[in-house]
Design a protein that fits this description.
Length: about 450
Amino acid sequence: MTKPINGFSKLSKSEKIDWLAENYLKNNENAVSILKQYWNEDDKLQKLHDEFIENTVSNFYLPLGLAPNFLINGKYYVIPMAIEESSVVAAASKAAKFWSERGGFKASVINQKKIGQVHFLFSGDFSKLQRLFKIIEPKLREAVKPITRNMEKRGGGILSIDLINKTQDLENYYQLFAKFDTRDSMGANFINSCLEKFAEVLQEEASKFEEFSAKEKELQIIMSILSNYVPECIVRAEVSCPVAELSEDKNMTGEQFTEKFIQAVRIAEIEPYRAVTHNKGAMNGIDAVVLATGNDFRAVEAGIHAYASRNGSYSSLTHASVEDGIFKFWMEIPLALGTVGGLTSLHPLVKLALDILQKPSASELMEITAVAGLAQNFAALRSLTTTGIQQGHMKMHLMNILNQHKASEIEKKEMVEYFTHHTITHSSVIEQLEKMRS
Ligand code: MEV
């Protein structure tokens, strides 16, 4: 059995790979060369990537695709998307084109507040704790001035700090619940630094508050951390057009399409099994933009799914209606994104992605990202309720199957031509490839 290793992080990159190969890859030369094959020739660029995280041994590529023709609030965008799933960028582009011919997408940020909490235990009289909080609130704000000064210059900062009594849910449990405006930054470091300072001041002030008994003075900080649940950082994206303009298919009227489409949305509103997949389709668009623009997709995912369950049952993020012959399809989601700080100024491709989007503010990026999610969900529902999803999916997947079977460029060209007139399944592709090769 392989022994654990001490001081792994201190080894050089090559030493780490040698250790890995020796202990876990049976000294497989090919595995080692795969890892090294993805190193960037430009040492400076590689060093940048090495230093993003600990124990980097290689780079992990994802395709960066472009979805053009997104008309959002009257302005055209090309949306960069980092994603591995074959049909996503194609679907986004198709939906963008479709809606650009019908007035485009409207998007707006409803609010943009971020949240952080100091979680602590206090065993004693709540009214005394309230009095302490009232006295120290200005001190909390004063203590974080060195952290908030720059943010305040940019128009942001701390919006509110509240004391919350959670003892009904958990014995002795209280919070400082703070709201922040972090302007164009995602603000995680800013918020967490403020919270840790709040915690320090709270504990110190409690320890010398005259009204407190000795036990009450032992107020215990459990942790201080931002929340990735941001129900007051909401963006709305919407499309609408006359029902009659919705169908491009001669076999289906706009009314027939709308009826089925709205039923599909209703199903996702009431049926969690479907809602998860429905929302996953929207996340295909959202995550791809979040990743390409160097934002934290895990935070976005966690926050959005919590929001989708806010009424007690997991439900659809998108909604649809028809009123006076006008079809409307919309989504409201929480999105805490940044366009300054973090990876945005470090990763060359992230910087480029933001340039492609014409250097958006955080609120513009929220709008663009929500639109990508809405477009993706529209494209998925349109396929699902008309042709079925596999037609488009397999068309994009064809190249993956051909690559898996090491098809040459000539073979690929012939196969693509053949399958424009035949149904693509995994076995039909292999069968045809074998036929061609024999
Ligand atoms: C696949 O990545 C996404 C879909 O399953 C979404 C949906 O079912 O709505 C097609």
